[in-house]
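Quick entry, no commentary yet.
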Amino acid sequence: MFIDELQPIFQEFLQHPLAFTGGFISGSLKLELSEDPLKTWLKKQGLTDFTHADSTSVIGSGPQSISID
């Protein structure tokens, strides 16, 4: 049962091991794509066409109200 829940993670790892590992490490270290040195490395790789929501703009914006019909 526990293995069934982890199966999608293992499939992604097996399909793209380097990208998965890099994403996992950068997420574990809480690196921002828009900050150096990661930003500089992405530019050198030619990967400057990414969209990334700046987390600092979300922090401190306060509660949001929603309406549910």
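second:
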Amino acid sequence: MIARLQVSGMSCQNCVRHVREALLSVPGVASAEVSLEAGSAEIVHEDADIQAMIAALEDEGYPAAQA
């Protein structure tokens, strides 16, 4: 399955790395492609909880919402 999130608060490639790592920490997430320019993330997962992904990002200081 593929999920798309809008992610706020990213300003550099280090932010992109933090967002990717936070998403990959969620059980069931296989991969995450994060775009600084678009302020978004595309996540490939196997039945992972979207709210858990959003919570993981918000815990790192990046507000997120389902796109």
